[in-house]
Amino acid sequence: MCVEFRTRHGVVRALEEVRFIVRRGETVGIVGESGSGKSVTAYALMGILDPAARVTDGRAVFGGLDLLHASRQELEAYRGRELAMIFQSPRTALNPIRTVGRQIEDVLLRHQTVPRAKVRDRVIELLTLVQIPDPERRARAYPFEMSGGMCQRVMIALAIAASPSLLVADEPTTGLDVTTQAAILDLLDELARTTGMATVLISHDLGLIAERCDRIVVMHAGHVVEEAPARAMFAGPRHPYTARLLASTPRVGAKLAELVPIPGGVPDLRAELPPCRYRARCERAVAECDEPPLPRTQVAPGHLVACRRPL
Amino acid sequence: MILDVRALTRRFPVRGGHGAVHAVDDVTFAIGHGESVGLVGESGCGKSTVVRLVTRLDDPTDGRIFFEGHDVGAIPAKRFARTAARGRIQMVFQDPADSLNPRFTAFDTIADPMRRLGESAMRARLRDRVHEVADLCGLPAELLGRYPHQLSGGQQQRVGIARAIALEPRLLVLDEPTSALDVSVQAVILHLLADLRQRLGMSYLFVSHDLNVVRMLTDRVLVMYLGRIVEQGPADVVFEQPAHPYTRALLSAVPADGGGPRSRICLTGEPRSPIDPSPTVCRFHGRCPEGFERCEREMPVLRAAGAGRDHEAACHLLDAPVGSAVS
To answer: Which residues of A touch B43 (CB under 8 A)?
Structure first.
């Protein structure tokens, strides 16, 4: 998948040859710093990219349908029912002038997943599932009457309302307490196990990704730099960026001295960039790194690295 | 002691109803000179209210706040903003983008507290002092002319920190200072904060929901639940041998990247209402996996926990025979 944004200040090449697969029942984590293209990937899959964006190449095949080139009608039949998304900012993603109960009902009625008479019960059931206290009363509340964490949970209820086959969760638990976060992710785990729901979990929290994902995709400046089973990635990262990302994450019981920042920042994606976009920040870079194309090497079964000099 | 908080209480009347939200209830703690104390707990537990009371942005309903020996809690928040002590208790806010004036350059943001509260000697060399503080915070001089929107998140937070330390405060209150930042930037800011404390000898009250970060930056931690301190002690002791069932649940919920299966303590049941809670029932009762009959008729107070000195928890389990308390 390749995505560009046309701006007044030039073309931003936001995603370049992003590729990964998600199997049924599997949870795939996408990690990276802000500006690495995590959310753009999610938006592209859902067909809700900004009008300034253009998919220049690639496919995203889901149940026989290419999401990147599907018609609006085809997408609308899938979205909400087969394909659902949890957005990053619950306050802006919910409709401010409808009660949260009505918003969940809308999804259920639109996709007719439960009989009309049962809709009300299902709404309460969903709110209970996402651990909203006093669900009957909360169903009648408007988003502004709820805390941010509560809105976040409502949005999760909306996303799972129609039992989707693929859930794209963009920072689903940011802003929630660790205890609530654990409960919500347990719920998503359970749905994956019982309904075979596949999940793309986008987060900057490596600890969370490590604990919850089967496989991990590491993104940097619009490139997938490494893809591996979760355990292999944490045991031995092969891309220098992944190693740096791990070293900059506070781990359980770690000391401050062990926390090493990543030098530099994500490059300006409007500029002419070398094949490897991590080159300017990389301590292992050599002259060959400037020669296209960027390699994509399999270093172990299911473990791919886009680097000329992997660790 | 630089800060000594005694039986601090803050209640908010319920709008259009009866009763009051007990946001902070009988909270007592102290911070020593040069000490860094962490404050953790879920949202709604009263962390932010404690911060607002200690930084004197809000007035307590009851209790006292002594800062450097003076009863600052008695000064109304409005008047406190003009006292000299205002410069000695400063704050770093969670979201740097929201807490910087969009119409102020970085220079003006850092200079503002000095212009308002600085002594004449400091005002006379304002320019030099701004450059000095910016340099301490790793902010290049060429960025001082920029407005917040022209700065990255990490640079914005450096401006926020520079503003807070401009008046050489003795106590810095940090409310989730890195939660809006990327991990790579967070690492830089955490190092900066540790470095500044060492260089300037400030005390920290560090509020965060990220327990791994709290452990890195603090000597001692306070754990709050529904307005009360339920456990306090040296950071390493509390993290290694938590004595309160709530602390144990909180720590077990932190994602651990080992991959191996861990025993997570799931909290079931709803938190008790913070509106006029019963003074004779433990606030954690109902959600506590280890609650028993006594928890319903007597509010536990802080008592010595384990062997570690200065480690306390408010739980009746600690009165039970040794062995069942520390699991």
So the answer is: 147, 149, 177
Which of A34, A134, A181 is facing B253, going by the closest CB pair? A181
For residue A38, which amino acid is it? K
B42 interaction partners in chain A (CB closer than 8 Å): 177-180
Residue A52's contacts (CB-CB under 8 Å, 6 or more residues apart) are: A5, A6, A7
Residue B143 pLDDT class (50, 70, 90 cuts)? very high
Query: Could you give the CA distance from residue A278 to residue A43 in angstroms, rounded to a whole number?
Result: 24
Residue B254 lies in a domain: yes
The answer to whether residue B261 scores a pLDDT higher than 60 is no
Q: What is the ipTM of this complex?
A: 0.82
The predicted model scores a pTM of 0.87
CB B172 within 8 A of CB B164: yes
How many domains are contained in chain B? 2
Of chain A residues 223-242, which have a CB less than 8 A from chain B? Answer: 230-231, 234
Band of pLDDT at residue A57, cut at 50, 70 and 90: very high
pLDDT digits (tens, 9 = 90+) for B277-309: 999 999 999 889 999 999 999 999 999 997 667
Residue A243 touches partner B, C-beta closer than 8 Å: no
Question: What pLDDT, in 10s, does the model give residues B95-116?
Answer: 888 899 999 999 999 999 999 9
The answer on B180 and B120 residing in a single domain is yes
Buried b (16+ CB within 10 A) or exposed e, B155-179: bbbbbbbbbbbbbebbbbbbbbbbb
Average pLDDT, chain A: 92
Of residues A177, A205, A256, nearest to B190 (C-beta): A256
- In B, minimum Cα distance to A253 occurs at B212
Q: Select the residue of B254, B266, B271 nearest A252 (Cβ to Cβ).
A: B254
A-chain residues near B211 (CB < 8 A): 178
Domain assignment present for B192: yes
Cross-chain Cβ contact B212/A183 below 8 Å: no
Confidence class of residue A282 from pLDDT cuts 50, 70 and 90? very high
Read off the tokens for A164.
């989707």
Architecture, CATH, for domain A2-82+164-305: 3-Layer(aba) Sandwich (3.40)
Do A159 and A103 meet the contact criterion of CB atoms below 8 Å apart? no
